[in-house]
Fold this sequence. Notes:
The complex is a heterodimer. Chain A is mainly α. Helix content of chain A is 80%, strand content 0%. Chain A contains eleven helices and no strands. Chain A is globular. By secondary structure, chain B is of the alpha+beta class. Chain B is elongated and about 80 Å long. The A-B interface holds A 159, 161-162, 164-173, 175, 179-180, 183-184, 262, 265-266, 269-270, 272-274, 276-277 and B 52-54, 73-75, 79-81, 83-85, 87-91, 100-101, 104-105, 134, 136-139, 148-149, 152, 164-168.
Amino acid sequence: MKTFNRVFTILVLIFLYVPMLVLVVASFNNGTDPAVFKSFTLKNYRSLFSDSVLLPLLINSVIIAVLSAIISTVLGTMAALGIHSMGPKLRSATMAVTNIPLTNPEIVTGVSLALLFAFIGTTLKINNILGFFTLLIAHVTFNLPYVILSVMPKLYQMDPDLREAALDLGCTPIQAFFKVVIHEIMPGIISGAMMAFTMSLDDFVISYFVYGATFVTLPVEIYNYTKKPLQPKIYALFTLMFIIILLMMVAMNILQARDLRLSKERKMALNADRRKAV
Amino acid sequence: MSKELIRLVANTMAFDGETVLDSIDLSINDKEFLTLLGPSGCGKTTTLRIIGGFLTPTSGDVFFDGERINDLPPHKRKVNTVFQRYALFPHLDVYENVAFGLRIAKVPEKEIDDRVTEMLEIVSLKGFENREITQLSGGQQQRVAIARALVNRPKVLLLDEPLGALDLRLRKDMQQELKKIQQTLGITFIYVTHDQEEALAMSDTVVVMNRGRIQQIGTPEDIYNEPKNAFVADFIGESNILDGIMLEDRLVKFFGRKFVCVDTGFEKDEPVDVVIRPEDVDIVPEKDGQLTGKVTSVTFKGVHYDTIVDFHGFKWLIQTTDYYPVDSIIGIRLNPDDIHIMKKSEYSGLYGDYSSYSEEYEELNDPDLFPEDISEEPQELSQSAEGEEAGKDEN
């Protein structure tokens, strides 16, 4: 059974990572046919970084990802605080509503947002409403539940007395949040922000329905590229994106592990005293 | 007597329709050490949180220095709290935890430094300034929590079971230290605990609470010597509680015999609860006893023996330094001072019978644990015991 488990795990990993590996190898291939590895080269990366179309689009993607991550983190944290202070019934209802967009097919979200924007455009008589702001609003919308979901558990874990202690020592509720509560839920806020950033950076489906000619993000443009034969510099671009996302994920995991260790230590210190007391 | 500082008038608190506090009236004087004592769920912490401003009573008023403060938020109240689980800020070190309130109040840096240093000295934590909170033991965290509250020089310090998580020795030391700090600084302490010994040892005034109501308010001596009802008598120390009839002033009848006591002010032939403290009973040879009984169990408790004596079906707890073996027949004598008479209350018959005695009699006698069993048994037993005793006397 143990060997079976191992073999199975390795198989799963192979299926997950072989496509990525092929892509990485192809990005360093000095030939046009991905099936044949001719020789090692960096020329694909060179041509990527001198590309006048792809690079600005990458910057567009990063701008949208950073802005939507910041906005959704602020809004999501505020929402989480609000939901946390609700009564149990209202809270679970709100959480259910919040979670629906997560399971909702992206294409449905995309189309409905596109319809909404079109409706607003006609009502307010704005031509070409689709562009930077519609893209940003759409990204903030689908990022919000991820932030809420990663901040909520931190709020539950936090000793509720901490906030009261801050109020007791003279803090206004807002001071109590910035001086005490935010420090306690920071790991959740950071992982929520990182999640929002990665989700936004590689989103294609929703973006495809709400982008305008004035502002295009990289995944949307790449989709247009795939209609023609792929250029090898795209492989280089994908490899870079894969590595960026991978690094973000590793960073998130390290942060979470550290946080877990810290809270465990704190609990153990408390428990040790309890045991002595018995 | 110093002047009144806090007054609660008819405070009722209900959560989701469940009444946690039932019309509490309480007056707290300046510089007083007042303890709210009671079992868990009695409403003592709720009362504390109302004073701290974390809860607004469903109905009733809260006055501080004559001013109504029902809607005053916690950060504007001149009280500070020591929380049960300390609630120290983990992202700050010891110094910054203590300095927290002063920084919020924008006290000048030099004064902050002086006051924090002075406070850390008072709680014997000099040299711990730069320690992280996670590096401290429970006792040290407790001291930081006390320093953090007291450094703001509050008029009132609220303490919510502050010693609950400490071991026995540390708890005793901290009790003395807290009392000393309270007297030196001249601050009103409102202390919540379920530990009756702690309450008796530290307080000027003890408020005994149960089921959202105040059962008795008094000095520790009053509460122990003159309990108002069976709940108080049982919760504060150990008590044998018997059914009796008050024949006239200073004369009570129980177990078919008349006893001289010191209590007055009852109706003629009024049914009463008779309290006899286990340590007040004198054991005498069988022939000299006012009552005779058989020893059924003896437990060595260090200073004394817990001796359970069966008086024809009703079992008493007697604490004695002499050893009487199981099955020996002993007599007892009661002086008028040893007998305390209480009016009948909703708690009559629920407490004070040691028939179900075991090592853990405190838990077993708790009606909240076995509400149905206990409420019926003792009454029947005490009646039958009375009947038997009476019958025997006639023979």
